[in-house]
Amino acid sequence: MVFQMQPYGIQAMLKEGHKHLSGLDEAVLRNIDACKQLSVITRTSLGPNGMNKMVINHLDKLFVTNDAATIVNELEVQHPAAKILVLAGKAQQEEIGDGANLTISFAGELLQNAEELIRMGLHPSEIISGYTKAISKTIEILDELVEKGSESMDVCNEDEVVSRMKSAVASKQFGLEDMLCPLIADACIQVCPKNPANFNVDNVRVVKLVGGGLHNCTVVRGMVLKNDAVGSIKKVEKAKIAVFAGGVDTSATETKGTVLIQSAEQLENYSKTEEAKVEELIKAVADSGAKVVVSGGAVGEMALHFCERYKLMVLKISSKFELRRFCRTTGAVAILKLSQPNPDDLGYADSILTEEIGGVQVTIVKNEGGNSVSTVVLRGSTESILDDLERAVDDGVNTYKAMCRDSRILPGAAATEIELARRLKEFSFKETGLDQYAIAKFAESFEMVPKILSENAGLNAMEIISSLYAEHAAGNTKVGIDLEEGVCKDVSALSIWDLYVTKFFALKYAADAACTVLRVDQVIIMAKPAGGPKRDQPAGMDED
Amino acid sequence: MSLRVLNPNAEVLNKSAALHMNINAAKGLQDVLKTNLGPKGTIKMLVGGAGDIKLTKDGNTLLKEMQIQNPTAIMIARTAVAQDDTSGDGTTSTVLFIGELMKQSERYIDEGMHPRVLVDGFEIAKRATLEFIEKFKTPVVMGETPDKEILKMVARTTLRTKLYEALADQLTDIVVNAVLCIRKPDDPIDLFMVEIMHMRHKFDVDTHLVEGLVLDHGSRHPDMKRRAENCYILTCNASLEYEKSEINAGFFYSNAEQREKMVAAERRQVDERVKKIIELKEKVCSSSDSNFVVINQKGIDPPSLDLLARTGIIALRRAKRRNMERLVLACGGEAVNSFDNLTPDCLGWAGLVYEHVLGEEKYTFVENVKNPHSCTILIKGPNDHTIAQIKDAVRDGLRSVKNTLDDEAVILGAGAFEVAARQHLVNNVKKSVQGRAQVGVEAFADALLVIPKTLAENSGLDTQDVIISLTTEHDRGNIVGLNHHTGEPIDPQMEGIFDNYSVKRQIINSGPVIASQLLLVDEVIRAGRNMRKPS
């Protein structure tokens, strides 16, 4: 008599092994708790003095970083509500490429404050309506706080770029920003197209070479390939380049071919015609003026031989994307089959040479006149340091992209947050109805930023916050924390600026995520699906 | 028991036990879905076995995603899913209505009433309600140019129950315009002609309607233009790549020259086809400011792409089959299956074709088309669950607009219909019924009230207060619905709250049928081997 004993309600209805959580205590508060836990993890990494995390992922790969996007990505968060926060962080990372930590930490703080409100007796729907009002007000205030005169900027001016990029890079590599920023800015400016809005992050490459130190980092106008030249010619200058996407070898039919040989004479002749054919082709290439041949596929022995004979440098780039970038760098058009290239199809580089750096043979393709691809060569003692440096560079490049789209800036170092908190609190007093408490809490949540910044720097958070409030109430709206000296200072003197778009998206995603978590009042966790172990993702289509 | 003699392993529930199991299951399912109803309903978070998140308020999604095992609940869930299939909305209402019918019946059965009598009453009440709905509906005329306002009101009513208000209002316009765009007089509306495309990008309020098409892939050649204006569009379904012969063929050659010739011969056929396209391009694009786009359902191999790129043609390969149909509707022209006899008449036209790259994904927009009969709703959202939620809502919204166009009628919403139908049943129909079937009619009438009751409950109002104020107001001769903000009666017509006629009809039709079936069960037998548990 199995089903006679079945309980009443949803439990009776679902497959065994499911979980069903509903109501304030079971669903809402538990979800909030999980999100709090997540933000507790990330918040200690916020800001320039943020701590690094050591994360070992399921592939036993070691990450030492304070980049929140990487941390939460590798944590493989399981809890559904916390996952919403992670998704918000990821969205921020995809949209701007920076500020993921602010998103997650702020959303966590919002939820923590929501919990207090719930315990006070507010209904989540009132909190949501308050938070929604608060975020739209925040955006309004944020617009007003934009530094005057920052709407337009010269994206090719290194100083202006560095000042905007500094805080983003400093939060990843504190102390190194003065060295890294000019490098990144230089690389970005080199490839900035006429219309800055079309800036492509992909055009700034990063090459990591173990060994040396940060001082050895350089920017190369052009590309750095991590492999050696194929032939014996290792260096050319002011060379024209022919790019063959399909490989440098004898042509072959799609259908299987068989050489029909009836006599010894034919055998001899066959290899002769073969040789003659290849020579003819290579000669045609050499005649066109090209000094360098780049192959996207295999380079045949015989073809190589003739290339050597005609003094052609041969490079092999097997990645399709890399080949495409190479074409962009040199202005070459990839030719599919080995044939005589048109003069228009040839590319040009000032110099191509192979060099040994830190035990790795690299090929450096320089093109002083070109502005399509630039490469930041990073040097460091270990892989993980290099990885972390790369993330800092990525953040910097993404910030550049963001400022190309919208160059408006806000005071950094928590000055904006305190001002937002102050003004939002004033706004909440004007509201009637229960959502004013939610708005006030939203305002309070902004204090999280200065609090964490000063805590991470080992300062007394309460003291700092109160003196910040005092300064702001006195009308000094640009006062933030000087973390090195541990005092409050005008950030325009320190020149710490944040990009408006980064803040805008981070706050909006955070508020969205918090509201989404609050809106849920029931969680139904399904039983694990039947079937064997999880299959691997099917191999993708031919992605180009 | 007799069954035991026949099969000692069989399980059996009889008489009241069977009935109560059914009633409990119906009530249980009702409890689960209750909180979802109406604009103030709450969201449920479904976590799949693999840890994937789904947030939903849609009864249909919920029933589909939940792994329901109870046999009675499955029956009810199927009815509800059928409701969605026929009308696209009203799943939650169906489940609630069935649950409430069972609940009302339970009262009478406990007092000794036979289920058969109740079922008879249901049947009478159902017929009377269906007659009543014909009188109650508000007819709308859908001529050449339908009344947009009515359509918007219907769409808004549906969407607000699935999404939060601001987003729902924005989608309302999108949905209505999309349906009107694909509507052709005299032809039935095919909602598949609205492409729903999503991009994980920006915010949910950035969702918009594209008059034209969005394809989720880009051109495959680095030298093709990323943006082109004044484009002729060739839609085709013919291969542009070398295809191996079916039979096992081989080449024999004895020197390199011969081989070169073979290689050239192999390519010739494909090259011929490409040349035909290029010829056509040369013919139509005589001036320099027009462009040519080829969208092929089959493949285009790199040498052909290269040839096309060199003449400035943008080529997209492996387009989705369903998009081929939509492309023709959006841009005009016709889809060709071979490259022989190409004429300029085969070509469509679009004012703007451009590629949008989002991380790894590429999208191609075909926009500014003349007189489109197909369009794309481009859903944006920061994460997958937001997108999924909007997608479900958009589908329901589209259906509701289509239903209105098909029905040429709407029903006042906000619980107004339910209150009116109940009063009609109690005041008029019940009196005309002879004997005990009256009880069935009464149970049916009370069950209808579950909709306004639940609406009130979800808004945090007192259900009894609301029902009493609604019925009193109704008896004064006004048709009223519930204002879920205040709990006061309102006129749904003034507020623009309209439901689909076909949705309501389907609920009234299917609800009592399944309830009657469940009530008439007097024995539940589980025989055969239980696969799950070892005995």
Please give a quick description of this structure.
Chain B: InterPro entries: Chap_CCT_zeta, Chaperone_TCP-1, Chaperonin_TCP-1_CS, Cpn60/GroEL/TCP-1, GroEL-like_apical_dom_sf, GROEL-like_equatorial_sf, TCP-1-like_intermed_sf, TCP-1_chaperonin. The complex is a heterodimer of chains A (about 550) and B (about 525). Chain A has about 550 residues and is α+β, with helices and mostly antiparallel strands.
Would you mind describing this structure in some detail?
- Chain A has 544 residues and is of the alpha+beta class.
- Chain A has helices spanning 23-43, 68-75, 80-95, 100-120, 124-145, 158-170, 177-191, 264-287, 301-309, 320-330, 383-405, 415-430, 435-445, 448-456, 461-473, 491-494, 500-519, and strands at 19-22, 53-56, 62-65, 204-210, 218-225, 235-244, 257-259, 290-295, 313-316, 347-357, 360-366, 374-380, 409-411, 479-482, 487-490, 497-499, 520-525.
- Chain A folds into two domains: 10-148 and 411-526, GroEL-like equatorial domain (GROEL, domain 1, Orthogonal Bundle); 222-254 and 268-370, GroEL, CATH 3.50.7.
- Chain A is built from 17 helices and 17 strands.
- The longest helix of chain A is centred in the middle third of the chain and has 24 residues, at 264-287.
- The termini of chain A are far apart.
- Mean pLDDT of chain A is 80; it is low at 1-6 and 534-544.
- With 535 residues, chain B is α+β, with helices and mostly antiparallel strands.
- Chain B has two domains: 3-139 and 411-526, Orthogonal Bundle (GROEL, domain 1), CATH 1.10.560; 213-371, 3-Layer(bba) Sandwich (GroEL), CATH 3.50.7.10.
- Chain B contains 18 helices and 20 strands.
- Chain B has helices at residues 2-6, 16-34, 59-65, 71-87, 91-110, 115-136, 148-160, 165-182, 256-284, 302-310, 321-331, 384-407, 416-432, 437-448, 450-458, 463-475, 492-495, 501-519; strands spanning 11-14, 43-47, 53-56, 138-139, 194-200, 208-210, 213-215, 227-236, 251-253, 291-296, 313-316, 335-336, 348-358, 361-369, 375-381, 409-412, 481-482, 489-490, 498-500, 523-526.
- In chain B, helix 4 (71-87) packs antiparallel against helix 18.
- Chain B starts with a helix and ends in a 9-residue tail after the last strand.
- Classes of the chains: A alpha+beta (544), B alpha+beta (535).
